[in-house]
Amino acid sequence: MVLLKICVVESGVFWFSCFLNLVLDGWKNGWFWFVWSGF
Q: How far is CA 38 from CA 1, 18, 25, 31, 35, in A?
């Protein structure tokens, strides 16, 4: 995942916003619930 790599490289507010974007994308794509259920 390119976005995930960008999140790791960056830091601070941008990383947090990038993380939120990944969560929102996962929510819409359905994989978020699959991963969340794994925990």
A: 19, 22, 18, 11, 5
1 vs 35: CA distance, rounded Å: 15
Backbone angles phi, psi at 23, to 5 degrees: -65, -45
> DSSP per residue over 3-23, as a string?
HHHHHHHS-THHHHHHHHHHH
Q: What is the pLDDT along the chain (39 residues), one digit of tens a residue?
A: 455 555 555 556 666 777 788 778 777 777 666 666 665
Look-up: residue for tokens 């790599």?
Answer: 5
What tokens appear for 27 in the block? 């929510």
What is the rounded CA–CA span in Å between residue 13 and residue 28?
23
